[in-house]
């Protein structure tokens, strides 16, 4: 099949999403008229002002929020609800306190009836990849916040989803832990020599995080969210985090995204540096 005819992994066409609220069940629009195509293996970040509908979009892809109008397709099929080919990593690691690290990572596999010798072995490899091989038998209360979030990531990876959905997974961590987890996610993402088989949609407020990790950064406008920029981050992979963060192109991409987020500041001719204003 030719490149142009291949079905995209995810397709949003004139997509509108929202929530019914209050007694009147009034419909509040969160996302309006979005057209977006994501290919297999792409790492996409979505940034935008608070309340612009980033989480609503992610939840719609997860099948947790219904489509109000337009289309939202995975592998050419409309999303009707949650499915095992899509896994979410939330901001806070919701681990079962009575289970060990390993048992927590098994959870999704158990629910899907797929826990067996082979998937147990894969779980061990994943825990090794996220640097938790020595903590397999530990309970969550013996772990730091960063380690718990690694377990959360391992749990999502263990079910081998087609799409990994990240809702600000490092947002609640201190700056140093966040940076080390960003570096690790970058390394994990690039560890397969044949390229990633999983596609990522990553919600973040941190512009530098989006440039570090992504192939493309989607910028949404203030509520209701519409796409105001779709910026390809063309830095080759594998990226070495310490080098890429210091590359002048890195700062240029951060500025481009910040300008798309705050067009009024560009119009006013204000200077905007990635170092001082990297958060949305
Ligand atoms: N469960 C809900 N019920 C009603 N309205 C909701 C619900 N969840 C979100 N909204 C509304 O939908 C809009 C988009 O919210 P959403 O959480 O998707 O934005 P966001 O971009 O992820 O925000 P943030 O960056 O602050 O997390 C907001 O107006 C919000 O108030």
UniProtKB/TrEMBL annotation:
Q: Which Pfam families match?
A: ABC_tran
State a single Gene Ontology molecular function. ATP hydrolysis activity
Q: Does the keyword Calcium apply?
A: no
Give the protein's recorded name: NitT/TauT family transport system ATP-binding protein
InterPro entries noted in UniProt? AAA+_ATPase (IPR003593), ABC_transporter-like_ATP-bd (IPR003439), ABC_transporter-like_CS (IPR017871), ABC_transporter_ATP-bind (IPR050166), P-loop_NTPase (IPR027417)
Per the UniProt record, the source organism is Actinacidiphila yanglinensis
Which of UniProt's keywords are assigned here? Answer: ATP-binding, Nucleotide-binding, Transport
| Alphabetized PROSITE patterns for the sequence | ABC_TRANSPORTER_1, ABC_TRANSPORTER_2
Please indicate which superkingdom the organism of origin belongs to.
Bacteria
Residue ranges of the ABC transporter domain? 10-247
């Amino acid at each position: 099949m030719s490149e142009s005819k291949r079905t995209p992994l995810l397709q949003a066409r004139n997509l509108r999403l929202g929530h019914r609220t209050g007694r009147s069940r009034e419909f509040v629009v969160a996302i309006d008229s979005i057209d977006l195509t994501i290919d297999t293996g792409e790492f996409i970040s979505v940034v935008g002002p608070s309340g612009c509908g980033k989480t609503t979009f992610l939840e719609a892809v997860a099948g947790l929020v219904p489509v109000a109008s337009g289309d939202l397709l995975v592998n050419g099929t409309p999303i009707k609800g949650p499915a095992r080919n899509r896994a979410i990593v939330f901001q806070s690691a919701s681990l079962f306190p009575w289970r060990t690290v390993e048992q927590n990572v098994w959870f999704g596999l158990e629910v899907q009836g797929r826990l067996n010798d082979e998937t147990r072995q894969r779980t061990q490899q994943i825990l090794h990849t996220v640097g938790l091989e020595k903590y397999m038998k530990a309970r969550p209360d013996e772990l730091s916040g960063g380690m718990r979030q690694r377990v959360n990531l391992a749990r999502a990876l263990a079910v081998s989803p087609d799409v990994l959905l990240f809702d600000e997974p490092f947002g609640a961590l201190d700056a140093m832990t966040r940076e080390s987890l960003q570096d690790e996610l970058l390394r994990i993402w690039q560890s397969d020599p044949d390229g990633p088989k999983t596609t990522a949609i990553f919600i973040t407020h941190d512009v530098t995080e989006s440039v570090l990790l992504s192939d493309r950064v989607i910028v949404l406008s203030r509520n209701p969210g519409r796409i105001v920029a779709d910026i390809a981050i063309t830095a080759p992979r594998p990226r070495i985090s310490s080098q890429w963060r210091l590359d002048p192109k890195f700062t240029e991409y951060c500025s481009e995204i910040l300008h798309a987020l705050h067009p009024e500041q560009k119009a006013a001719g204000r200077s905007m540096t990635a170092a001082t204003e990297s958060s949305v």
